[in-house]
Amino acid sequence: MLSVGDTLVTLAAEAFQVQMEMSGPGGSRRTRTVKRRVWGGLRQWKLLGMFEIDQQHEFYSLTCMMKEGLSAAVQNTIDNPIPDELSEDDYKLEVTQIHKDFRMETFAGPVFASLRRSLGMTEKEYQHSLSSEGCYLQFISNSKSKADFFLTNDKRFFLKTQNRREVRFLLSNLRIYMEHLEKFPHSLLVKFLGVHRIKIPHRRKKYFIVMQSVFYPDERIVARYDIKGCEVSRWTDPAPEGSQVIVVLKDLNFEGQFITLDHQRPWLLRQVEIDTAFLRALNVLDYSLLLAHQPLHQDERNHSLSFATLIMRTKKSFSLLSTRPMAGRSVNAVSGPAVPGAVPEEDSTVLAPGPEVDCGTSQGHVTDIHGDGSRGHSPEQGERSSRAGAESAELREFQAQNRRLLPNFKNPLHVIDGPEQRYFIGIIDIFTVYGFKKRLEHLWKRLRHPGQSFSTVSPPVYCQRLCQWVNDHSK
Fold it and tell me: Is the entire prediction scored with pTM above 0.90?
């Protein structure tokens, strides 16, 4: 993939070519076509650093095939609804659909459909985003990988090409990835929504994955960062002042700044520890903490919640990505924090309307769920005590899962509101295994960069260092 600088150089070269072709023989016949190509490319820089993949784009044919293939793959799920419980065969399933100019293979389709459903996403909604009439966008990345990055026209989903090894790694660890998301429903790990392979005659097979975009919706985002917790090669020149071109900054660009969350900071520290410990167990490194921020509107800074809003947010916090039904529990009988977003481990009460919640009524109270206050031993009291004990167990499980009160937002799992800023946070690029090549690279970098921190270190060190970075750069 071309870097930002390379692309600008290419456009400049094409502009020079326009002048040469205009002055040469037959130039008048080619002028209009070449001009359209050059100025079309320059116009696309106004799309905030993303190229619209129109008919002149090199990836137009490929992305059209992706759209057609994905639409058919999702339609297959719509026509054949997934079961309530996944089987071993679902994890190994490969479905091939034949199209006019290509074949599309879908791996573990029921598993990813199950994940989409648990995220509250309908298949029709997913299909519409992936196959809408609007062109895909090519994201210009400064990544060192050779992957190509595409965005759906609404910028909700990322499509990224992967090599065979990376896809096999993901599929071989798909079950424990799903188990991690079930155990920690508010995980910051990127949500993989599909794995596919396109076979085009006389061309190499191309694997790609579909992911939720951490930075969705991005209309008001003012800065984006890719954080690895180290120093070497972790600076990117910012975009010129006034420019609308997207530049994803790095660790050194963030120095002197903080993720200011106040009451939600303990939750973030804990979740980063949980997710990086999972990645350490997979023996991977070089993953990134994606971070972006935008200022809150005045009405978004008001933490006084109506009871109806509180109920809706609490319900979302419990239901999103949860595979266990909540039958028999009323919506206001679930735990929530006194301060939105905080989940204190020592809390042992069920949230009911308190002074900080504008309910329009004065009858709110906090209910003891332990049953300690019961002095009698009547059957009714015993039943109430039993119910309270069950709710207390569920509360402890809720706390152990490190859940939080999710915001009323389109991308709640990756959005955390502080007092002044809204933050988008997620962990991506989890495919780099610490094998023989990476160990050699580690030794070489120790010689090349003595006394400096670099990305290629053992998974335990990488995990601890990223956690330390979040701790040092949050308050």
Answer: no
